[in-house]
C-alpha cells in the first residue's frame, strides 16, 4: 500500500520561499557495504534529548514522546545574518506549548520577532491515524511510529541577498528516516545494493524470529532486480509494532510506503513453512516497489500504482526462489465480480480490482513486450519511462510508452484489457523458470497432419501455415523475415509461415531474455508428390500425403528443402544450454531455460 507524500504549501511569501528536503539526523548505525550480520545489529536505548542550538540556515525539528496519541516537537530555527523576516506555519491540529522569539500572526502561523538569535516553538502533534480497521501510525506510552507530515512545518523568509534554509529532523530517543520516525528503543542493521543503502529499524518492544540484518539483506537483493529508475539513495524500513498494521492494511498487504520510507507490520514480517521461518518477502517487495514510483498519474492510470506493486510482489520472490510455485498465482486470481471492471475507470475505492485484475493484466503485457523485443525489454522499461516522464502520465501516454518500448503498437490489446473489460490470460509458473531449472519437456512442437511432432522432425512445410506450441510453457517462435508467432502457456498453438529452403527460428520462453536459435530445413513439397504445399492446401488435399493430391505436378519444379525427416541444427543462445544426442540421424534437442532477473 502506498500513500503519496503530502505537498507542503507555504501560505505567505515574504520575498523568497524555500522548503528544503527532509534530511534525517538519525542515530548512527553500523556502516556496512554488504549486509550486517545478525550479531552486528546495533541496539539503541533512549537517552536525553539534544540541547545544541540549530546551525545557521537550519530549521530543526526534534521529536520526543509526549502522551498516548501525540508526540512533542521542539522547533528551532538557525536564523542567518541575511534574514530580515521569518515565518513558520505549524500543522493545523497541534497544541502550542511554548514560544521563544516567535509571535503568533494568525491561526498556526508564527512570525520571528527579529531579535532572538535562535527562535523556537514547542508543540504537541497528534499522530494516531486509522484507515478503516487498519492502524497506520500510533503513539503509546512506550513508543511511537510517526508520519513526518503530521509534525512537519511550512516556512518562508525575507532576506538581504541570497540565503537558504534546510529542514532537519532529529529523534534522540529513536530513529528518523526521511518520511517516518520511530520513537523508542530499537535495533538497527544496514545493507547496500544497486546504489541504495537500506536501513531496517526493529523496535525492541516487539520480537520477530528474523534478525534485522536479514530483512535488510532481503531489500538489497530485491533492489538488484528492479531497474526502473527513481532510486532514493537511502531507504528506511520500520518493523511496526501492534496495533500498527494489525488488520493487514487496505487490501491485506500489511505495510505502507511513503516517499523513501516504509513500514511492515511485525505480525506480517515473517512466515513459516516446511523449511522453517523466513522473511515474508512479498510484502517487502510490494512496499519497496512503491518507493520506486516517482511519476504523476492521470485518473485513468492510477491503477498502475497498486497493480505494479502486486505484480512484482509475486514475480520477484518467485524468480528469487523464496516462494513456492503454488503461491505464485495467488495474486492473479480475479473474482467474478471484478471481471467486468475496466482498469482505466477504477477509483481508489476499487482497490481489490487494481490488486487482482491489475497485476494479471500487467503480467500479460510484460509477456507481450518481451515477445515483441526478443526478450531485450520488459515492463520495467515502461515503468522507467513513466518515472522519467514530465507531466501527467495519461492512458494515451501510457499506450505510447508501451509502443515505444515494444517497438510496435499494442493499442488494440490495451484497449481491450485495460480500457476494456476483457480478462487477460493469467501467467503460469513454468513461464518464469527459476534459476537452475529446466522448462521441460525438451522441445517445442509443430503440427504435422493430425499429430504434434518435435521441432527436430523436419522438413517443415513452407508456404502454408504451420502451428507451433510448447507442451508446458509459452514460447515465442521468430522465423527470419516472417511474422512472429506467440504460443500461449498451456499449449495454445500459434501459427507461422516459413520460407522454402531453410528457416531460422528463435525459440524462447516468455519471461526469458535469451533463447535458442534453430536452423530448420523446410520444403515447398513436404510429401514429395511434385505438388506444392500451397497448391495442395488450395485444392483441399493433404500436403503430408503423396496420394491425396489431385493436381498435376509442375514440370521441373525444384524442391526447396528436401523430403523425409532430417536433423535440425541448433545453436545456443546466450544463457541457454542445448542438450542433445544424435539418435538414428535425428537430433533430440532440449533447452535449459535460465531465468534472468528483471533488469
TrEMBL record:
It comes from the Archaea. Residues 32-59, 516-571 are annotated as: Disordered. Keywords: Membrane, Transmembrane, Transmembrane helix. The chain crosses the membrane at residues 575-594. The keyword Membrane applies. This is Glycyl aminopeptidase. It comes from Haloglomus irregulare.
Amino acid at each position: 500500500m502506498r500513500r503519496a507524500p503530502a505537498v507542503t504549501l507555504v501560505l505567505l511569501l515574504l520575498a523568497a520561499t524555500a522548503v528544503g528536503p527532509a534530511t534525517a539526523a538519525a542515530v548512527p548505525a553500523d556502516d556496512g557495504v554488504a549486509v550486517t550480520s545478525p550479531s552486528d545489529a546495533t541496539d539503541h536505548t533512549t537517552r536525553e534529548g539534544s540541547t545544541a542550538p540549530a546551525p545557521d540556515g537550519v530549521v530543526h525539528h526534534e521529536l520526543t514522546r509526549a502522551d498516548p496519541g501525540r508526540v512533542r516537537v521542539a522547533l528551532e530555527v538557525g536564523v542567518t545574518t541575511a534574514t530580515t523576516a521569518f515565518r513558520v506555519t505549524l500543522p493545523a491540529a497541534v497544541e502550542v506549548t511554548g514560544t521563544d522569539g516567535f509571535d503568533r500572526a494568525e491561526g498556526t502561523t508564527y512570525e520571528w520577532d527579529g531579535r532572538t538569535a535562535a527562535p523556537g516553538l514547542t508543540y504537541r502533534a497528534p499522530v494516531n491515524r486509522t484507515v478503516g480497521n487498519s492502524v497506520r501510525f500510533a503513539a503509546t506510552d512506550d513508543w511511537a511510529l510517526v508520519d513526518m507530515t503530521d509534525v512537519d512545518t511550512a516556512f518562508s523568509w525575507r532576506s538581504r541577498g541570497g540565503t537558504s534554509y534546510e529542514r532537519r529532523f532529529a529523534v534522540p530517543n529513536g530513529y528518523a528516516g526521511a518520511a517516518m520516525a520511530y520513537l523508542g528503543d530499537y535495533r538497527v542493521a544496514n545493507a547496500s545494493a544497486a546504489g541504495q543503502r537500506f536501513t531496517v529499524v526493529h523496535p525492541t518492544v516487539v520480537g520477530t524470529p528474523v534478525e534485522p540484518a536479514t530483512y535488510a539483506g532481503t531489500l538489497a537483493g530485491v533492489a538488484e532486480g528492479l531497474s526502473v529508475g527513481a532510486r532514493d539513495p537511502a531507504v528506511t524500513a520500520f518493523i511496526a509494532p501492534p496495533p500498527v498494521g494489525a488488520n493487514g492494511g487496505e487490501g491485506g498487504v500489511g505495510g505502507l510506503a511513503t516517499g523513501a520510507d516504509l513500514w511492515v507490520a511485525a505480525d506480517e514480517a515473517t512466515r513459516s513453512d516446511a523449511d522453517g521461518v523466513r522473511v515474508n518477502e512479498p510484502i517487502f517487495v510490494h512496499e519497496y516497489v512503491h518507493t520506486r514510483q516517482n511519476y504523476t498519474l492521470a485518473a485513468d492510470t492510477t491503477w498502475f500504482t497498486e497493480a505494479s506493486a502486486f505484480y512484482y510482489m509475486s514475480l520477484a520472490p518467485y524468480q528469487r526462489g523464496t516462494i513456492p510455485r503454488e503461491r505464485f498465482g495467488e495474486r492473479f486470481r480475479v473474482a467474478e465480480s471484478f471481471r467486468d471492471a475496466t482498469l482505466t475507470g477504477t477509483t481508489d475505492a476499487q482497490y481489490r480490482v487494481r490488486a487482482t485484475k491489475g497485476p494479471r493484466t500487467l503480467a500479460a503485457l510484460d509477456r507481450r513486450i518481451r515477445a515483441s523485443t526478443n526478450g531485450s525489454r520488459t515492463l520495467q522499461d515502461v515503468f522507467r519511462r513513466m518515472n522519467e516522464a514530465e507531466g501527467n502520465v495519461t492512458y494515451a501516454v501510457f499506450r505510447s510508452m508501451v509502443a515505444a518500448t515494444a517497438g510496435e503498437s499494442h493499442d488494440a490489446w490495451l484497449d481491450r484489457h485495460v480500457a476494456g473489460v476483457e480478462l487477460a490470460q493469467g501467467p503460469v509458473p513454468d513461464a518464469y523458470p527459476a534459476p537452475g531449472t529446466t522448462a521441460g519437456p525438451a522441445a517445442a512442437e509443430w503440427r504435422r497432419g493430425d499429430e504434434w511432432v518435435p521441432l527436430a522432425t523436419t522438413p517443415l512445410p513452407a508456404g502454408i501455415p504451420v502451428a507451433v506450441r510448447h507442451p508446458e510453457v509459452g514460447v515465442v517462435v521468430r522465423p527470419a523475415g516472417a511474422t512472429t508467432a506467440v504460443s500461449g502457456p498451456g499449449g495454445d498453438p500459434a501459427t507461422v509461415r516459413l520460407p522454402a529452403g531453410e528457416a531460422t527460428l528463435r525459440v524462447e520462453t516468455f519471461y526469458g531474455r535469451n533463447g535458442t536459435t534453430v536452423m530448420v530445413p523446410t520444403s515447398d513439397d513436404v510429401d514429395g508428390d511434385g505438388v506444392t504445399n500451397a497448391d495442395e492446401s488450395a485444392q483441399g488435399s493433404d500436403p503430408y500425403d503423396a496420394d491425396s493430391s489431385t493436381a498435376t505436378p509442375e514440370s521441373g519444379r525444384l524442391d526447396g528443402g528436401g523430403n523425409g525427416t532430417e536433423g535440425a541444427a541448433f545453436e545456443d543462445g546466450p544463457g541457454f544450454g542445448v542438450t542433445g544426442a544424435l539418435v538414428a540421424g535425428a537430433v533430440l534437442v532440449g533447452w535449459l531455460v535460465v531465468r534472468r532477473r528483471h533488469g
